[in-house]
Structures are given as structure tokens and as C-alpha cells.
Amino acid sequence: MTDKLFIFDTTLRDGEQSPGASMTKDEKIRIARALEKLRVDVIEAGFPAASPGDFEAVHAVANVINDCSVCGLSRALDHDIDQAAAALKGAVSPRIHTFIATSPIHMEMKLRMQPDSVVEQAVRAVKRARQYTDNVEFSAEDAGRSELDFLCRMIEAVIKAGATTINIPDTVGYKVPERFGNLIHNLITRVPNADKAIFSVHCHNDLGLAVANSLSAVLNGARQVECTINGLGERAGNAALEEIVMAIRTRGDVFTCQTTIDTTQIINCSRLVSNITGFPVQPNKAIVGANAFAHESGIHQDGVLKHRQTYEIMRAEDVGWTANRMVLGKHSGRNAFKAHLKRLNIEFTTEEELNAAFARFKELADKKHEIYDDDLQALVTDTLSSEHETYKLLYLRVISETGELPTAQVTLFIGGEEKTVSAKGSGPVDATFKAIEALVNSGASLLVYSVNNVTDGTDAQGEVGVRLEKEGRIVNGQGSDTDILVASAKAYLNALNKILTPLSRQHPQQHNTNLCKNVP
Ligand SMILES: CC(=O)SCCNC(=O)CCNC(=O)[C@H](O)C(C)(C)COP(=O)(O)OP(=O)(O)OC[C@H]1O[C@@H](n2cnc3c(N)ncnc32)[C@H](O)[C@@H]1OP(=O)(O)O
Ligand SMILES: CC(C)C(=O)C(=O)O
Ligand SMILES: [Mg+2]
What we know:
Mean pLDDT: 91
Shape: elongated
Number of helices: 16
Oligomer: single chain
CATH topology of the largest domain: TIM Barrel
Radius of gyration: 33 Å
Bound molecules: acetyl coenzyme *A, 3-methyl-2-oxobutanoic acid, magnesium ion
């Protein structure tokens, strides 16, 4: 038998309490719409008494959302509750959430109230909220550090007053999973009218235990979890919605409840919240981090290619990624390399060609963090076109100094011999080409020089294209390397090698960017 676990999203309220994460009304509406698509059960849209702006935002959200409950937070004060009710006017399913602290330290040092008065104020607040809606949630703030007997007394009283959801927050992230689970179990079994309300938890991540504590509570009878997208929230944040939802779904053997979340919307929500708040998602973040479904090491890639579940407990597509990612890098093996080439429709006719390409790939991967498809294309083109090399680059050194003409020192392998020369040029590429010409003396003229960065980032591979003409014959040459000067030298030599091949009448191909004759 499974029952429903309600997902209460507080990205727009507790998430917004994260320093620097304030949202405008329009931003809240965009996130609320995404949360509705995600099919959360409750959206806590803000704290209407906090400011006119937040009142407006909650009101706006309440009036655009149809498929889930919209909630506003309020202290246990008449004014706050009235404001929350006014902001929620128009909502299809409004919930008023009122709270007051129940721990000795909060009651004595912050509220400066006696416990009896705190219970009285909570009861009064719930009754007032019930005048506006029958969907009233009460939170015992800092329940994690409250005394059990007092908490039981408080909960019994507020349920009697009309609260339909009882939220047990670990406000300062102090609890550990086993103790928090026990607390929930004790409350549910000891409070006489506990069956009249849904027990909820709201965990903070100060010790990195928010998700673990929430799940422990679920195992002990909690049926609502309060959480946020990407774990946004006050200080170290709240329990991450995506982690809670996927843990419940993936471990159906452990949990006897289910959410009704459309998990394929998780990535959309995560990106939206990250873009709006400017809080990036760390790459290794569970579920929504860029690396959450990426494999780089050869042994893992080999395993996943043979049987996905060897290294994946969830499907990337189920949370909204297009697919898992096989990252080619220095830890990748031959099987993953071959699988990538196959996907790109690249075939080698001989095992030697494949071996040469794999060796070049490993060399490149040592210099560059990630090898993208375009890197592979460039690398393979290089491998295939370097078959009959009359001229081969062995060494290149270029010195550029302010106020001086750059000098290039080039060592080539020509007809079985190493030859070195230096030349100056108007720029570093020009100096490189002049040095090559000083050794080769081809008599060819440069028609086009083009540079593309094949991939992004400062460690991107540069792909250089050159077009040479000699006695009416025109050839193109390409070279790629993380060093643009080395790529230029390779491209120039690639063209020279072709121009010296008797049967080749090369057809010029159009390059896509930066076509120019002037070399830097
Ligand atoms: C654990 C949580 O996340 S709680 C929610 C936190 N969210 C916010 O605080 C929302 C933003 N807050 C605000 O804009 C403001 O703090 C307001 C509008 C709510 C209140 O502002 P002010 O009236 O200026 O009070 P201030 O913030 O300085 O102090 C809070 C007061 O509320 C009291 N208070 C705190 N919690 C509660 C409560 N649940 N019920 C009743 N009173 C409370 C405090 O004891 C203090 O009272 P005092 O002024 O008599 O000492
Ligand atoms: C208002 C309550 C639910 C809260 O955010 C907390 O205690 O952390
Ligand atoms: Mg909180």
C-alpha cells in the first residue's frame, strides 16, 4: 500500500530568504508557473506582511495558479494573518501558514514570552486563519530544539483550533536523521488528535542533513515535505526538492509513499531558479548538476555503454535532461572513443588509423579538460589528412614582444631530415609562415587564412584553415590545436603537403568564419 507524499515548495518564500535571492513579482510568477507544471502540491509564494512588494507578488501568484494550492506565511499575529488572507484572495486553493517558535531559547530570548502565552497566541492565530480558509498550516518554529512534552501540547491545541497541516521545522539544521525520525514518530503517536492533520517537515541544511532528515521523517510518518528547487533557502538552504522527489521515486523499495511530481520538469525548474536568482548550480549537485549524469572515466563509460544501470540509478531523461553525457576526456577509454566516432558517422578503414586518432585524442585530452564533438571532428580530419606528409612540424617557438617584430623558430621534418630556421614577420602567424617558407620555398601564395575556435572556453581547440595557390592549383589545409600558432603551422603544412601531391587538384571549400587573407 502506498500513500501520497505532499510536496510543498517554498522556493518563493524560504528560498527568497537566501541573501541575494530576492525576486520581483514577475520572476515569482514565472517560477510559480514552472512549479505548477512540475505539479507540486503547494506553492508558498511569500510573506505578504513583509512588504507591499511581497504582498503584490503573492497576490499575483495566487491569481495565476490553478492546479495547486498557493500559500502565504504569517507570524501568529492578527495583522500578518489578515494580510496573508488578503494577498491570497482569488486563489483557487488558498492556504494560510502561520507559525510561532516553541523552543525554550526562542520563546525566552526572542519572543520574550512564557510558554503558556505562546500556546494561546498560536491557537488564536490558527482560529483567525480558519475564518478565511479551511486550509491552515501551523509551524512550530525551531521544533528541532523544542521540548517534546511542550511540542505535543502545542500541536494538540492547534489541531483542535483547526490546523490541518502541522509542520515540524528543523529551523537551524541541528537534527540528525535518526533523532529527527524519532521525533516525528513520537509526535504522531503521542498527540491524541494527530490523525486529524497531515504532519509535515521543513529541514534546513546547516549540517548538510536537510534531505536525510526529511527522508527519515517520511519513513516515520511525515506526509508533507517542505523543500526548494536547488536547495535554495535561508543560510545553507532547505532540503532540495529534486533530491527528495527522486529519492522517494528511486527507492520505492524503502518508501511506502509517492509524490505526484512530473519529474521531467525538474531541470527546467532548476535552470529557471538559477537564472532568476543568479545562484549557479554546482556541477556535482545531485540530479540537477551538469555532471549528475555525466561519465568520463573509461571503465564507467565502458560499463554504461554495455548496460546503463551498471553506473546509473536514475535515467537522465526522467528528470528532464535530454540524455546522459559521455564526456570524452583524459580518463576515457577506447570503447567510449569508438562509440563517439560511430555517433558522428566517422569511420576508419584501418585499425592503425583508429589507433593514431586515439593516441592524438589522449594527447589533446591531456591539454584540454573536455573533448567535444567538434574537437573530435577536427582531430580526425587531422589524423586522416596527415597520411603522406612530406613536411611535418616538429617544433615551433614564437617570440612576441611589444615594439619588436615577432620571431618564429620552426623545425620541420623534410625528406627524412630535421631542418630549423628562424624568421621575422609582421605578426606571429606571419612569422611562422615565413619561417616555413624559408625551409620549403614552395612559391605558393596564401589566398585565405581563417580561424575558428572549435569549442568554447580559453582551453578551446583552434581550427585554422588556409588556402594556397601555386601555378593555378588551389588547395585548402586545416590544422587544429589548443595553441593557435601550432594550428596555423599545421594548416599551412597540410596545404603544402597537398599541393605537392601530383594528382590532387583540390577544390576550395568554404570556411565558415573569419575568412581573410591578412594573417596576424
Ligand atoms: C524561520 C523563518 O524563516 S521565519 C520567517 C522569516 N521571514 C521574515 O522575517 C520575512 C521578512 N521579515 C520582515 O519583513 C519583518 O521582519 C517583518 C515585517 C515580518 C516584521 O518586521 P518588524 O515588525 O519591524 O519586526 P522585527 O523584524 O524587527 O522583529 C520581529 C518581531 O516579531 C516577533 N515575532 C517573531 N516571530 C513571531 C511570530 N511567529 N509570531 C509573533 N511574533 C513574532 C519578534 O519577537 C519581534 O517582536 P518585537 O518587535 O516585539 O521584539
Ligand atoms: C517559518 C518556518 C516554517 C521556517 O521557515 C523555519 O522554521 O525554518
Ligand atoms: Mg525555514
